[in-house]
Amino acid sequence: TQAQEYTNDINNFLKYYPVQNLHSATSIDKLSTVLQSLFANVCSKIRSSRYYDLVRCIKLVECTLYTTQVRLELILAENFKLTKGMNHVNAMDGHTDANVKADVNASSSSSNTLASTPVSSSSSSSS
After folding, report:
1. What distance lies between CA 27 and its chain's CA centroid?
2. How far apart are the first and last CA of the chain?
3. pTM given for the model
4. What are the residues whose beta carbons fall under 8 Å from the beta carbon of 6, sequence distance 6 or more?
5. How far is residue 118's CA from residue 115's CA, in Å, rounded to a whole number?
6. Which of 9-13, 35-39, 94-98 has the lowest mean pLDDT?
7. Residue 100, pLDDT score
8. Hey, what's the torsion of the CAs at 114, 118, 122, 126, to 10 degrees?
């Protein structure tokens, strides 16, 4: 009877905990959505649970965060692997990342040259 109540309470707490969605998340957006639903689930059920105490809930959250970290590392590694070594084309003007870096370096060196060039007083008084 009391064991049955305890078991039912714990089962009810974990019944709709969407941990499988966490394992199947393939993007950061999906991972974010899953985490929101996981923590909404915990927050709503912790108040109504009679036997799932705060210590157990903290352990559940720690395990969820560890699983999230592992999943996020996999997602980032996969995204990095897909983009590694590729020249990304800027959709605005068709420049590759290498060209953009060269443009930035060129503009910064020309601004340094301009900053070191003295301004003559005769050109400023002619207007």
Report:
1. 9
2. 97
3. 0.58
4. 51
5. 8
6. 94-98
7. 44
8. 30
Find where tokens 């395990």 sit.
63
Question: Any residues with CB less than 8 A from the CB of 11 and at least 6 apart, and which?
Answer: none
CA–CA separation, 90 and 101 (whole Å): 12
CA separation for the pair 71, 19 (Å, rounded) = 12
Q: What share of residues in the chain are helix, strand, coil (percent, to 5)?
A: 75, 0, 25
Two tokens, residue 84: 């590694």
CB distance 89 to 96 below 8 Å? yes
Sign for the pseudo-dihedral over CA of 117, 118, 123, 127: positive
Please provide the DSSP assignment of 68-104 as one string.
HHHHHHHHHHHHHHHHTTPPPBPTTT--BHHHHHHHH
Distance CA 34, CA 108 (A): 44
Other C-beta atoms closer than 10 Å to the C-beta of 60 total 18
